[in-house]
Amino acid sequence: MPSLDGKIVAITGASAGIGEATARLLAERGAAVVLGARRSERIDAIAQSIREEGGLAATCVVDVTRAEDLRRLVATGVDRYGRLDVLVNSAGIAPISPLADLDTENWSAMIDVNLRGMLHGVAAALPVFREQGAGHLVTIVSVAGLTVSPTMAVYAATKNAVRTVHEGLRKESTDGVVRTTAISPGYIRTELADSMSDPRLQELTRKNMDAMGIPAAAVARAVAFAIEQPHDVEIGEINVRPTVQG
After folding, report:
1. What does the record list as coiled-coil region(s) (predicted)?
2. Domains in the chain, please, with CATH?
């Protein structure tokens, strides 16, 4: 099994789902992980579990809508382990609805978490990466941005915006300092449906997850694959979805 020995990785949205699975897998493969999320008791419990299994883990309470929280997350990695090799932006919400519902509050929430939260991560990590001479930005995007479905216009827009930022950063990083990887999951069994305010859409999403969803560990393996490549190899985009998903 490939080793990530010595890698220092900070992860947002690490209290559940893809973020948690990524933290556990990377720690298992030898990385030191810094778990960031709003639920302090949850990330503390996950970190304790990782340490009990022989891994290295620290925690930092993070609300990705707050730029200072991302700076603190990055600083935790640098202060604890001496540097930060990778930032995994995994935090995201999906309170989807038809545009005609005019749910402007949740439109703003998706922009703040999915897009602005990722940008806060870029702003926090990029100076550290440049000072070190190397760094890797990994963001969990979504296949929803590849084919826009009804009720998902704003959610997909935030994900497409994130993909655009990644491509822009890649083209600005031809000096070889910063690598970028955008990973787009399909139906993954996570808590994402909990963030949906429309009961009908929440029920439909859970039904689809139950019927075809694959474990969050499948996405975690894609993150590990991208990170473990030598620094002169960049895995720009990966789509991870159930084989049966149309």
Report:
1. none
2. 8-234 (3.40.50.720)
